[in-house]
Design a protein that fits this description.
By secondary structure, the protein is of the alpha+beta class. It folds into 2 domains: 74 residues, Alpha-Beta Plaits; 47 residues. The chain is 53% helix and 12% strand. A 3-stranded antiparallel sheet has the order 1-3-2, with helices on one face.
Length: 121
C-alpha cells in the first residue's frame, strides 16, 4: 500500500474512496472508524492509501483529474473476495498455532498438578 493523502474531513476521504473504487482502484482509509483523536500523534487525520502499489500513479492522477481513467482497473468485488480469503487463511493458521500452544500448556499444567498432588516420597 502507498499513502495518497492525509485529510481531516471524513466525508471528503470517503468521497475520494468511493470515486476511486468506482474507477477500479482499491482504496483503504486509515483511522476510518476512529478518526482523528486528540492527544494521539498517529491519529491526527484520515489517511488514504492505494491498496495496490502499481496503481499509485493512477490514483494520484484520478485525485487530481476527475475525468482520468485508470490504465488497469480492478474489479473491486473480486479484489475484496481474494483479500478476505487471504485474511481468513492467516486467521486459520494463527488459530492452529494457538491451539497447539494451548494443548502444550494444558498438558504441562496437568503434569504440574499431578506432581504437586502426588509428590514422590
Amino acid at each position: 500500500m502507498k499513502l495518497l493523502l492525509k485529510l481531516q474531513d471524513k466525508d471528503e476521504a470517503l468521497s475520494i474512496k468511493y470515486r476511486l473504487e468506482l474507477s477500479g482502484i482499491p482504496i483503504f482509509i486509515g483511522s476510518e472508524n476512529s478518526g482523528p483523536a486528540l492527544g494521539f500523534i498517529n491519529a491526527d487525520c484520515y489517511t488514504i492509501w492505494a491498496e495496490i502499489d502499481a496503481q499509485y500513479k493512477c490514483a494520484i492522477s484520478s485525485i487530481n483529474d476527475k475525468s482520468y481513467e485508470p490504465l488497469n482497473p480492478v474489479n473491486i468485488d473480486n479484489f475484496r473476495i481474494v483479500q478476505e480469503g487471504q485474511v481468513q487463511a492467516f486467521r486459520d493458521k494463527f488459530s492452529k498455532v494457538n491451539e497447539y500452544i494451548l494443548n502444550i500448556l494444558a498438558v504441562g499444567g496437568i503434569a504440574w498438578l499431578v506432581f504437586v498432588i502426588f509428590p514422590r516420597g
